[in-house]
Amino acid sequence: MCIGYRYRRNRCCVSLKYLISEDVGKVYVTNRTHGKADSLSKQYDSVLSIDYKDRYSVISECDIIISATSSPHYTITRDMLEKNIINYKKRIIVDLAVPRDIDLAVEKLSGIEYFNMDNLKITVDKNIDKRLLEVSKAEKIIEKFLVEYERWYEVRNVFPVKKDVRKYVENLVDQRLEEGFLKLESCNKEDREVMQGLIKGVANEIMNKFVYSVKECGSVDDVSTYFKCLNSVINDEWERVLL
Asked: Cis bond leading into 160, ω under 30°?
C-alpha cells in the first residue's frame, strides 16, 4: 500500500512506479484527496484506489506499506495497526516522510520491519562508502595498468637496440666458432652445424632472459637506462671491431 500520492515526483510516486515495474501484484493507493489516487487506478490494472479512512481495512492484506505525506499527524499508528492486523507475517513498513508519517512504535510489533529516512540514509552512506572503496580499487588497477603500459612502451622504443644486440651476439658467436673450428681439424660440416645451433641457441636464450627480465622487473626508468647503457656498449664494441 502507498499512502500519499500527491504529485508525479514525490517519494511515494517513485516507489509506486517501482512496485508496478516489478509486477508485485495488487497495490492499494490512498491519499487525503481522492482525485489523484483515482486517476492512477484508471491507468494501471494492478492499482486499486481506496479512501484514506479505509486504509486500515486492507492493511492486513499488505506485505509492504509505504507512506510519504505532509500530514501533521501519523498516517499509521501502532494501536490501529495492531488492531487491524488479522494474520501475522513478515511486513515491511517504509516511512519516507519528513517529519515522520508512521508511529516509530510499530517496529516493536511481531513481523514488522520498519525503515525511515534515517535508516535509509545510513544504508545510502554505507553504499557510498562501498562505492568509494571500489573506486579506490579501480584507481589502483588503472595505476598498475599505466605502469605496465609505460614499461611496454619504453621496451617498444628500444627494440632497435635489441636487434643490434642480437646482431652483435650472432657475429661474436660466428667469430668464436670459426676460431674454434680452425683448431678442430677433424670437425666435419655436420658437427659444425650442430655446434653452431647449440651455441647460438644458448646465446639467444641468455640475451632474451636479460632483456625480458629487465622489462618485467625494472621500472620504466630502469628499462630506459639499461638499454641506453647496452646500446653504448654495443656501439663501442662495433667501433673497436671496425678499427
From this structure: no
SS3 190: helix
Cell matching residue 80: 490501529
**Environment class of residue 97 by beta-carbon count within 10 Å: exposed (0-12), middle (13-18) or buried (19+)?**
buried
Grid cell for residue 241:
671491431
Report how far residue 208's alpha carbon sits from residue 189's, in angstroms, rounded to the nearest whole number: 28
Distance CA 27, CA 48 (A): 6
- End-to-end Cα separation, the chain, in angstroms: 96
Place of cell 501475522: 88
Reported pTM: 0.49
Cell of 146: 599505466
Burial call 27-51: b when 16+ CB within 10 Å, e when fewer = bbbbbbeeebbeebbeeeeebbbbe
| Cell 650442430 -> residue | 194
Q: What is the pLDDT of residues 5-61, one digit of tens each?
A: 665 456 667 777 778 777 778 888 888 765 555 666 677 778 888 888 999 999 999
Q: Which domains does the chain have, with CATH numbers?
A: 2-116 (3.40.50.720), 158-242 (no CATH)
